[in-house]
Amino acid sequence: MSSHASIQCDVVQALVPTYVDEEVTESVAGSIRAHLIDCPVCRAVVQEELALRQWFEPTDEVEVPEGFAARVARRAFAGDEGLAPVTITPAASEGGRLLSFSRGLVAAAAAAMIAVTLFLASQELPSVGEVGAGPDLDQALEELEDENRAREAELEDSGAATER
Amino acid sequence: MGASMRTMTSAESDDATLVQATLDGDSRSFEVLVERYQRRLFGLVRHYTRNAVEVEDIVQDTFLKAYSRLETFQSSSAFYTWLYRIAVNTILDFMKRQGRSPVQAVEDPELVGRTETGASDATTERLSVRPDARLEREEIAAITRDVMDQLPEIFRTVLVMRELEQMSYQDIADVLQISIGTVESRLFRARARFKQKLLQEHPEFAASEAAAGATRSRGGRAAQDRSRDRETNA
What we know:
The complex is a heterodimer. By secondary structure, chain A is mostly helical. Chain A has helices at residues 9-20, 26-38, 40-53, 68-77, 94-122, 135-163; strands spanning 3-4, 7-8. Chain A has a two-stranded antiparallel sheet. In chain A, a hairpin with a 2-residue loop joins β1 (3-4) and β2. The longest helix of chain A has 29 residues, at 94-122. Chain A starts with a strand and ends with a helix. Classes of the chains: A mainly alpha, B mainly alpha. At the A-B interface, α1, α3 and α4 of A face α2, α3, α4, α6 and α7 of B.
């Protein structure tokens, strides 16, 4: 690392882009200029920076369509607010995809329930009027009651055993 | 370098008066504001699309949005930096709408020190000092446009503002709402990426070996380190 005019090359080279852009203070620019007089290496870095700038031509004069300003002002005062900004729709995001999937699942479940209901309705099951409330039915209900009680007792016993 | 405590220029004070008159319902004042900045906005937008209809639509949309949000404009800041901010957002919005460069538009500035291949932004190859010695002005502009089109939006925008629109670091910082240190750092990386792409596509513009020898190992490395430090600290 060499030093010319009391400023080191690495410092100068770090400042070259802002120096070329004329964005350093006048005192810093003066120190860099003094350094460059004696330092061919840093001069080459400045040349390289300038070479890059040559690829950018400042904007040419631009043609604006006639009456543009008046047209825009008219539209603005007529309440035209321009196009709404693009927002990422929920469907495009991770959460949105999950939401869409859930909605699809609910819709599929509803469709399946309807299909099952229609299928059962189409079966030849006896109507309420056809089922007589005779002694056979009472007996059957009692048997079912007994079975349920026995099952509940069983479950209570097994629960108590697990707790123990 | 721009000062952080800024005083209002006469043009800015003029703008503030026109803004107030517009808010009071004077459409002619808004027309004057449009006339004042339309050329600059057409110039800015033209760097993103060459389609004249699209350019006009984007500029018009920018002014319409500006009008609809005029009440939010703080007259302590410059009207044109506020307008530019709306323009840049409108441009990026337009590109999203068109499905152009969606990945590039969201590239993380903190991760762009390296390219997708893992190579560093900075190229050690040097550019030929005078491209215009071999090319016409239009040819240079066409090559520059092609290279710029391949850059991430975050880099293209600072290059457009600085190199083509000749905006100061302070104005770029104000428009993009970033620090001056970040502007410097982003510009450094944008230029490095531009040079890298340019030399990839057009190796014929590399400087001759003899000219390149002197500073190949030195130039830029210190600047790159310092620039990264700045962005980290910003």
